[in-house]
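Q: How do we represent a protein-ligand complex in a form that can be generated token by token?
A: Start from the inputs.
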Amino acid sequence: MSRISCPVLARRTASAAEAAALVRPGDSVGISGFTGAGFPKAVPVALADRMQAARARGEDFQIGLWSGASTGPAVDGALAGVHGLSKRLPYNSDPDLRRLINAGEVDYVDAHLSHAAQQAWFGFYGDLDVAIIEVAAVLPNGLLVPGTSLGNNKTWLERAHKVVLEVNSWLPRDLEGFHDVYYGAAVPPHRIPIQLTHPMQRIGDPYLRVDPSKVVAVVETHAPDRNSPLDEPDDNSRAMAALLVDFLRHEVAAGRMPPGLLPLQSGVGSTPNAVMEGLLTAEFEGLTSFTEVIQDGLLDLLDAGKLTSVSATSFGLSPAGQQRFLDNVGSYKGRVLLRSQDISNHPELVRRLGVIAINGMIEADIYGNVNSSHVMGSAIMNGVGGSGDFARNAYLNFFVSDSLAKGGAISSIVPMVSHVDHTEHDVHVLITEQGLADLRGLSPTDRADRVIAHCAHPDYRDRLRDYVDRARAARPEARHTPHLLDEALGWHAAYLREGRM
Ligand code: 0RQ
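Then emit the structure tokens for the protein with 0RQ bound:
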């Protein structure tokens, strides 16, 4: 049975190629999709074919692409493969596109994920020509049942001049009721407080709205989300997870947190997922989550009854996790709520709810500055994603990483980070497999002592200590945050020169 029950929109049914033909060279295109869930499966591939044909004729055909976050090979991979992107925002994890960005071929705007929608509304990115949005169904009255992510869909649907809908029958029809789309947002000076005081509170509608007169094509698809197998937690991830869970225990005992903790946010990656695994066997009950991505670990906690509910903007499940969700969709209704990413990651809400934020990092420095996005100062890995939205405003934040990278050639604890995403003013707790450094309320000098002693790998500890001692001695009048400017990034320079820090 067709998922398109609105007679007006049913008349706009088209093939993916016909829909792709409505995108013009130079257009800005907003698509659905967040961490591999809910991206359009057919039209971008058809668009890539058109671009390929145009290139073969010697014509230029590139677009600017705005998404929620990462998509799948059928979007970023396909469009990067034909050099079809001139601009991309606000997050990417596709390796082919990463190469083009780092080669300087694609302009990448690496924005906080909660900022993208409002910056589009402010007009910072210019006009949005086309939106291509995947949904689970179109209701008789034209309302849209969203899919497995909400991301920036509401904003793209409202801002775009033309809208293409992909109605994917692979998505469970039972997704109806899983969403809360907030329609109360405005731009300054007309903003009002967002009246959300509990992670699961509904403040919006279960459906997305679209102006039918803008809908130029409705394409039917039947294709799965991308689902990357999760790395099994290794010994280091398990060690970090154990440190983190024990620290939470300590915070409860000290009276700084209720026994059921505060709403959890966990970033993508195997260590944040291992933390969720650690919580499975810990004593905490009645947990809640206010996060952006639902990984397998959160499903495990829901299934075990440890976690009562989770608010997010998308799924990011492994094949096994996805199957588990699909097999039991109904049982998760009322316990899982998907919101737009400007709400799931909203600073006002993260701060009000007192979120505990757990995110991966690339490196940290001795004073507690954290780099989440760049390798050796210049090359982007993925982007800042939602880590800044959550960390800056969290009640308590954690950044986790192995103490070594590239087989020990790189220390993840360095004198000065080669790029800063989270400043020393924002960062609370650093964790590596070596230990945990609680930096709250410490001066830079005390932070350096603690980070070196607890988080740095023993192979690099003495050299870090030596750096701080010499920096302190060098300028007695500048001992607040002592640095040797000629050497501060010398470890990175040595790696680029010699392959070892
Ligand atoms: O590179 O793949 O070439 O080997 O970085 O490292 O150890 O696999 O780490 O998968 O947990 O990702 C920060 C990237 C960590 C991630 C980051 C190299 C390492 C490897 C990946 P290779 P690991 P993880 C919610 C929150 C920002 C967005 C965010 C991230 C690669 O957590 O993207 O937090 N965070 N969003 O070899 C040079 C170092 C290195 C290093 C690791 N010190 N120097 N390279 N690597 N440490 C989700 C969203 O917002 C959508």
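The first strand starts at residue 28 and ends at 31. The mean pLDDT is 97.
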